[in-house]
């Protein structure tokens, strides 16, 4: 971290300021120029609050040279993280490290027939995980809120029938014990900075899928990841799912530059959710292919056997037929990129 | 709600679609033109998911005429909500309904001396509530996270010493019992769509201060309010605290048009937080005055006796002297607007 | 267009309002329900200003069913527009209609050696057009503003030497006669809503490459296209080049969902500029591939033989070696999509 | 400007890089620490392109300490700029320097009766300038584009009849000679970065009102101002008129923090346009008052005698009655702030 000192700052008060910084365990590299005095802070600055420093009356500007995250940082962990999850059939599914992993299923679990039918069709098309919502974060208190525990039961039953491990969203840390048979716990975009939840999940032993908040930066996503990693849970997957913009054409703007950005800054696997990002089923195949071309490690896609009758988000769900055809295309993309789907 | 049907839609499938809508308890007003068929949905459409309707293959576009919130809606509750809170001295503080209410105090509670000193100075300047963070949502797991329970104790002690009721943020619903002596529970911007938390707070009997999420729309804020109101807690205050933009000059953009917008759409009191919105102490007085001119019912302002030494967000805290001088200006603004500060 | 009338609107004033609309050449379809009166406007509503209608005291809401653009609209022109440009060697280059077209070259023309060297290398790698800036829109009046006329001369010389047709930006309509040997005139993002310029270009006979403004919606881009088409110039190419967001990681956010959106709404070819969008050379290959996977008809990419010495935007230019390797990958992507590069 | 050098950079290549910088007329202050080497650039860095520097392989990060604008910078011009304009009656109108100046009138000039009636009513209410559009930038080529020259004539006639100096938008530099009787030339938001236009206006002797582009930063607005100032035209007024956001409630978000920001960074007068920013007539009074409370030097407000019949933007125009009542309130606000309306 580099601090530009305000012009005309005299010796004693500068000395006091340096002493203050040294008390935080940093070594200070002082460079006095004719017009500009600069302090270089040497040591671990991840705990230093750059904004708080800005409040000091001697400080002109602050430049962070190192990123404020450590465990999520590729600089300290150059190799890709590979996450392995054993399915109910004993087979391993891999996420990251040269694999392409597709998670698919309905937005909400609705009936035993629906979830089983969708699970079978996505398995046949090549999905590695079944996704489905049991507890649903809904903007309106009057909208369908998911089947809750019964939804979880239906998901687990579909898992047993198809052998697909499951991923579903946790909204309340008290439900954690209900999630025993869940293979990956999803943290939704609206909870990306629910630090209470992140801290609890950092202590559990389940893999976590962390979705980017719809107005959070790359750095903020990696800081949220840092909460989970810092507590000891290193089985973490990041997910880009669209950010807010001024254009109402799509629900959100899918930020595919987040994929190479996250892969460069971090060692964690990165998957993309084109369904929630665009909110438009007809756009999902194009954006799914683009995500893979941009370097994503996988996708999470909404599939519904009757999108028109879906209890939520039907307009963004593709049919099993469209999904199967998309998977065929994705295999050819995986080939080009030397990845295994 | 009005649904434009796709051109060329025939009789039977349209009949089926209408039957489907009628099953949701709505009466359908069919208008068949030569080029455009339009359905008017009559009845309570707050539970209807416009996005889900868009998924139906017969639907061209959907227009919501009524807002999706009901209890927060001024249409169904024309009079301003007035919230009264009794201080430890027995005196009443009012929020809304022609009063101007200022809440002030440090970002974080740090020491007994600090919180008491700040509490005294803001009381003397005319603040009606003491604010202070005990549990702090921090972007980094390595930043100071607040004093927690001990912070709460210090706040309560400052409340007793000064007679100022207190407002502080709740991050974890399990802490609710610790908040017995807290007068207003704050829901932070990052938790505005933590629906689990909102639902729990809808069942408690404490007034709630709900901050707008930094990328949430006016409608989404009112839907979050609806969660709290729908559960039976009608002592709710809304707070504008800045939204994300592309310009890094201020931390967020203070959206003052949210004030007249929220006052028109809803009966709930609306206060403004210029400190978090701008992140710049020198800008706080200008934006505080502008908020009152725009029609806000109050302000929540960060005041610190030593901003430079603050453990968090010092650069946005004004000194007690600046705060006192601002309060003098605000009294003159209140006069013009016929409000009581 | 559908207009929801305010509840309680009586007979005579509604009649007057309908008469007012009929005077604009529209036929009105009146649907009176018990709680909601709706007007359907039949006829050509492209000239109707929906915002102006909102000002009328009887109007509750307005819903546009048809898009406000006509000539750019795929509905009225279902087939892809294919643009053919004859190079100095007599060979045809195609844009749109199943072709993949890559335009490449330096941000600015700097010296004869530079532009010729880059032109040769991008030609060899398979680029179909040479791009290069002669007149540069720069945020600062003190930055290098391009070589102007001399830059144009150097571009034309490079065109003759290599046989590559050229694309370059026009900032001032008075320069039009200088652009005689330019093959495609670029309208920069900052001029997308310079309607004076658009109108002049609608009357010229050169193909135009219209870049999306950095905070313009899909609809606004198509309305800007409509200005050019309405004047009679139908050789128009659209270009997505990144939109503003809150995240400083990349200069702009490349909005790849704009590609399927524009292809669905319009028949015009759509190319993508990953260099300006991201501002980061290392990210260009990933985003270029993603653009093709999303369905783009081509790319415009900055290539510089010495990025470090570039007089502008060097940090976003790839080297000729990186470009050649990218073109190899793109050929494989083109194969999958059944397109010809 | 401060440059952090990449770790491990050796002596010779660093020497070459320093020599390169010195050739640009800068003196380099080298500070070599154990883990971080930092260069301080001493001298005039306004012409240095920070982004281009980022392309150099030795550069880790760049921190601008000084702003890239000079003539617009309050640091080099501490006193407020005061602009005086003589009206047709010989009386002076002042903008800046402790005055509050209100410009009012219709969005578009429509008929002699309309513009004269509005001019009279706004004059009587206390407006100092008449605004009105003759050449209108419209998103759609099919919308009313303004009366053009005839509109200018009508404006000038209204000026003579009322004695109010006039402000109107210039879209095409060729119209400059038609603007002889115009007192302030407006540059619209869409042309804020039309550098060709700015450069021409920098050479003319008319005061210029420069509107902030709807997705331009504070710094970009001041750089656009710099174009005009650098050419010798120092009679320049800045105008905040709303920026793009994700919330459709208002057309744009009025960024009132831009007012204190611009006043701190620059010496130029700053006015606010609440009409275009919000697009909602009922919100204009609240935001106009807030703008003055935030420290604006004036306002530009749309007033129409028959908003419902306006040919453009009627929904954002207040009636003469509302305007007169607003002016009464504003006088009381001016009093508090010690300004003269």
Describe what you observe in this structure:
4 copies of one chain form a homotetramer. In chain A, strand 8, helix 4 and strand 9 form a beta-alpha-beta unit. Chain A is of the alpha/beta class and 341 residues long. The first copy, chain A, has 2 domains: 2-63, Phospho-2-dehydro-3-deoxyheptonate aldolase, domain 1 (Alpha-Beta Plaits); 74-336, Aldolase class I (TIM Barrel, Alpha-Beta Barrel), CATH 3.20.20.70. Chain A has 10 helices and 14 strands. The longest helix of chain A is centred in the C-terminal third of the chain and has 17 residues, at 320-336. The two termini of chain A are 42 Å apart. Helices cover 31% and strands 18% of the residues of chain A. In chain A, the strands form 3 sheets. In chain A, strands 7-8-9-10-11-12-13-14 form an 8-stranded parallel beta barrel, surrounded by 5 helices. The interface between A and B is large, with 51 and 51 residues.
- Report how far the terminal alpha carbons of chain A are from each other: 42 Å
Report the count of strand segments of chain A. 14
Q: CATH superfamily assignment of the largest domain in chain A?
A: Aldolase class I
Strand content of chain A: 15-25%
CATH architecture of the largest domain in chain A: Alpha-Beta Barrel
- Text of the CATH class of the largest domain in chain A: Alpha Beta
Low-confidence stretches of chain A: none
| Proportion of residues in helical segments of chain A | 25-40%
């Amino acid at each position: 971290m580099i601090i530009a000192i305000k012009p005309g700052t005299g010796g004693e008060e500068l000395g006091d300021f340096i002493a203050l910084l040294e008390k935080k365990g940093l070594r200070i590299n002082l460079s006095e120029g004719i017009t500009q005095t600069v302090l270089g802070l040497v040591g671990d600055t991840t705990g230093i609050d750059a904004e708080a420093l800005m409040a000091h009356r001697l400080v002109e500007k602050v430049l962070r040279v190192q990123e404020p995250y450590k465990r999520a940082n590729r600089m300290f962990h150059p190799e890709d993280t590979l996450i392995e999850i054993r399915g109910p059939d004993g087979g391993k599914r891999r996420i990251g490290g040269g694999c392409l992993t597709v998670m698919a299923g309905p937005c909400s679990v609705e009936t035993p027939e629906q979830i089983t039918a969708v699970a079978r069709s996505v398995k046949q098309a090549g999905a590695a995980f079944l996704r489905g919502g049991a507890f649903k974060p809904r903007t309106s208190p009057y909208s369908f809120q998911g089947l809750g525990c019964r939804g979880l039961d239906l998901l687990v039953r579909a898992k047993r029938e198809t052998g697909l491990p499951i991923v579903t969203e946790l909204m309340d840390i008290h439900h954690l014990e209900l999630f025993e048979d869940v293979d990956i716990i999803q943290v939704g975009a609206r909870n990306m900075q629910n630090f209470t939840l992140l801290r609890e999940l950092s202590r559990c032993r389940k893999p976590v899928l962390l979705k980017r908040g719809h107005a959070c930066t790359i750095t903020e996503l990696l800081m949220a990841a840092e909460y989970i990693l810092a507590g000891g849970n290193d089985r973490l997957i990041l997910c880009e799912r669209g950010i807010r913009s001024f254009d109402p054409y799509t629900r959100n703007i899918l930020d595919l530059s987040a994929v190479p950005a996250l892969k460069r800054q971090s060692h964690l696997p990165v998957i993309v959710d084109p369904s929630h990002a665009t909110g438009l089923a007809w756009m999902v195949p194009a954006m799914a292919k683009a995500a893979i071309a941009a370097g994503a490690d996988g996708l999470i896609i909404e599939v519904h056997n009757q999108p028109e009758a879906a209890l939520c988000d039907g307009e963004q769900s593709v049919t099993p037929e469209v999904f199967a055809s998309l998977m065929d295309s994705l295999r050819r993309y995986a080939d080009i990129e030397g990845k295994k789907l």
